[in-house]
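Researcher: Please translate sequence to C-alpha cells.
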Amino acid sequence: GSLPRSACDVLLICPVGESFATEIGSLFMPVLVRYYAPFFPGMTVDVLAKPLSLKDVQSRENDFGHRQYLIGDIFTLLNTHKLVISNRRAYSRLGVTLEDIYPGDEWNYVFGQARPLERVGVFSFARHSPVFYDGIHATEARTLLSTKQFVGWMKTNRQTMCHETCHVFGILHCVYWNCMMNG
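Model: Translation complete:
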C-alpha cells in the first residue's frame, strides 16, 4: 500500500556528499532530527549511517565556482543505492545535502524537489545559507555567521526539509503566505 504502516514507518534521512563529515554537517543533523521527528507523529526517523557519495552524480559549476549537482542523479541514488534500499521499513527517503543542486540545464537551481510516487525527496541547505550569495560554500559558513544568522538558517532548513517530506506524502503547494507548503 501507499500509506505508512507498522512494517513501513521510517522516514529515512540520507545525507548526500562528504560535506556531512564537516563541523557544520555534524551540527545540522541532530537539530534537524529533533525538529523533524515530532512533525511526523507515528513515524520513526532514521539517518543513514554513511553519507552517499556524489562521485557519480553529474555536476556543473555554479555562479560562485562551486560544484552544483544534478538532482535527478541524486534521486537515482536514493532509489538504487544498496545502503538506502536495504532499509525495508523506509516509507520514504529524503536526501539532504550541503551542496548546491539543479534539476536540469534550463534551471539555475532548486532548494529541493520531491517525487511523491517514488516517495523520495531531495533538499539542499546551500542556498538557504546567509552567506551563499557572497560565494561562501555552506561548509565554510559557520564561523562567518552570528548566532542569530545560524539559528535563522537552521529554522529555514527545518521548514524546507518538512516541506519536501510533505510533498512525499502527496501534499501540494498552498497559496497562503504563512503556510509551510507555500510554493
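Researcher: Any highlights?
Model: Strands lie at 10-16, 44-47, 59-61, 67-70, 90-97, 100-102, 112-115, 120-124.
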